[in-house]
Structure formats: C-alpha cells, structure tokens
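Quick start: what a row looks like.
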Amino acid sequence: MSEVISHTLPAPADQGRVGATQRPQRGRVRLRTLLAIRWVAVVGQAASLLFVNLVLGYPILLVPAILVVAALAVATFVPQVRRKSNARLTDRESALYFAFDMVQLTVLLALTGGLHNPFSLLLLAPVTVSAAALSFRSTLGLTALAITCINILAFFHLPLPWPQVQFDLPPVFVFGLATALGLAAVFISIYVFKVAEESRRVADALMAVQSALDREQRISSVGALAAAAAHELGSPLGTISLIAKEWTRDLPADSPYRPDAELLLSQAERCRLILAEIASRPEQSSSKDHFHVLPAPLLVEVAAEPFLRPSVALRIEAQGEAREQDPPLMPRRPEIMHGLGNLLQNAIEFAKEEVQVAIHWNRQELSVTITDDGIGFPPDLLDRLGDPYISAALGRYGGKLVGRGGGSSSGRANRREGDHMGLGIFIAQNLLERSGGNVQFSNNSFGGAEVKVVWPRSALLGETA
C-alpha cells in the first residue's frame, strides 16, 4: 500500500518556543549544609590541636592556634543566628565563605608546620566544592587563592610540632609538594567543573523535556474537557432556550417580565454560539483527541499540521510489506505528538521546497523517516546531535538548526540562532525514546537532513491494546 499526501497550508502566526529555559538564579549551596561542615571543621581542628599538644606532648603555639579555630567558630555562629538555616547562598556569598575557610586553614597550617603538615591537603576541599557547585568565575578565583596560599605556606610557616629535633623537609621536596598541590588545584577545578556542568546541563534539559511533556498533557486534558463540556451543556442549554422562547411568546408585549425573558433568551443563544465555537476549534478543543489511536500517516499529518508553510510541500508516503497492507495504528500520546512535531517543524522550517515523510512497517517494526531538501546537519556534529546546549558550537557552522523556535525562518537558512540552546532535538529524542522509539540522525544523498525514528511493533501494540 502506498499513499502520498501533499500540503501547502500556512502555519499559525505564533509558534511558542520550547526548551530555552533559563537557569535558576538562586544558589546551589544551602547555608545549613555549609554551617554543618564548618562545625565539623571547628571540632576537628580543636581536637587535633589538643591531642597533639596534651596527649602526644608535642610543642605547639596552642593559644594562637586556638584563637584561629575560635575565629572560624564565630564566623559560623553569627550567620547561624542571623540567617535562616534553610536559606540558599548566592554564588558570590558561597565563594566568600569558601575563601574565608581557605584563609583560616592557611593561617592555622602556618602555625603548625605549613606544607610539612599532612593536613595541608585540605586546602583542596574548597576548590573541589566550588567546582561542583559554583560558577566558573568563582571557581577560578578560589583556585587562584588556593595556589597563593600553597605558595605562602611553602616559604612562611612555623616548624612542624615534633617530639625531639626540629622536623625539616628538603627544599626540593617542599617545592615539589607545592607544585603538586597547585597543579592538583587546577586539575580538580577544571575536571570537576566540567563534569558538574555537564550534569547540570543534562538535568536542566531533562527538566525542559518534562515541562514540554506536561504542557502537552495539560493542553490535551483541557481541550478534551472543553469538548466534553460543550457536548454536555448542549442539552440543558437547549431546554433553557426552549422555555425562554415559550415565555417570550406567551407574555404580552406590555408585561414587565417580557424584557427579562428576552434577555434570558438572548444570553442562552449567546452561550450556544460560544459552545459551538469551542466545539469547532480542533486546536483548542482537541476534538481529534477523542481518537486514542490513529493510522500512522494520519498521525504524522496531524503532528505536522501546526507547522506547515505555503512555500514548503509536505509529502507523506506510507508503504508496508506484502502481508501488512493496512497502516498500523499509533497511540496519540503527547510524547509521540510533541516529539514528531518538533522534528517536523525543524525540517519544514529549513527546507527549501519539500519535506518528505516515508513510513514503512512490517511485523516487527515501524519506521518514520523525515527528509528535507535543505542544507543538512553539519557533518562534524552529527555524533553530538541530541546533546543539550550545543548551540554555541553549532553557531560556527552552516547547516541545520537543532533548536526549536518560532517565528520567521528568514535569515536562518545558513546559520543557527544561539538562543535555541540546542534543546529542540534533545527534547524530541528523549520524548520519542520514552515512547519506545529509536532516533537516528544523518544527511541524505542530496545534502539535506534526514531523521529516522524506529519503533518496535510490540511497543506500539502495548500502547494501543
């Protein structure tokens, strides 16, 4: 069976942009967590000093060291009293807290041996936390401060407490240790920041996917509710109109109740027109959603309808194997509709004259291949398609936009807009994979883009059963 459908219909005037969500501005570090860690540091530092001096009997400047620890305790107690413990610190506030902790630890280490002290490794802790939770600017500043503190401790420090003679490491070893700690601070800040940033991007993009899915489900639910309300209210409204007509006919012209009866009749007629208008709008009433499943060609047609342009023809070709002539039914779920709609909008927006959709099926699987005659995907970035937030890299290439956005496509045929954030294909791929499909990206032999989605028939049968 083969079917070809062509469309040259205008798209709606306004298409909402999907996926370009902004990052939340509030900080990622909770004050309660930071204060709890600080109290652990206060207790640990004080216990270590007392153990070394009183139990081991090593000589140490106990009073100045305890005063340094007390300064950290005061700096922890004051915000705990003056601020809510569940408050989130801004990026700047968190960086200042970590900077104070690093300076306090540096002073304490300077009093207890400098880099000779094994606890000098703790200088890397604020850098690690900053790289995981703060901005690159704050992490860069704290890394520079850590390197500065390490260099200071390498040259300016009191002797390490030792039971007999003064413990002194060779200068070469101290220099190597300082270099190692400095390089570790740089490596940790870059490595941890890159990993954490990638995790944050994926988390934000997945949130955008969930938001898009929730939006589609809300639209479908509200539309179905409006259509049901229009249908159910028809009968009582007809009864009200009938009674109002009888009153208007029976009341004499000079009756004081006749104006009220006429007003009631006119308002009932107005309600009837409003309900009729709601029922006649498929995009608002979702009257098509009364069909839980649709044939695959019709479902693709419905998904593409909001994005059609007069200058681009949409051709849908459906063909099955010899024993599977009838098009398979596909569930009209928000994941499938939004995912296919996103890919179809992207193809229609950047096609020159035509977008072809080839639907093939057999007993095992169903495939939908979307091909356009545009300039295709950048070959160097085909392997990265589906990753979120790759628009910065895409801006250096000519080719096909991977973010979803509305408005006119003029001026965008040869470049990509940075505000699309690369979330369009990420959202589409995740939604379609959630429905059981597998999405593949490539360029066809004519240079245009090609996206193929394959579903196992068992997954579709499970949805339509």
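That is the whole record. The radius of gyration is 34 Å. Residues 238 and 272 are 8 Å apart (CA to CA).
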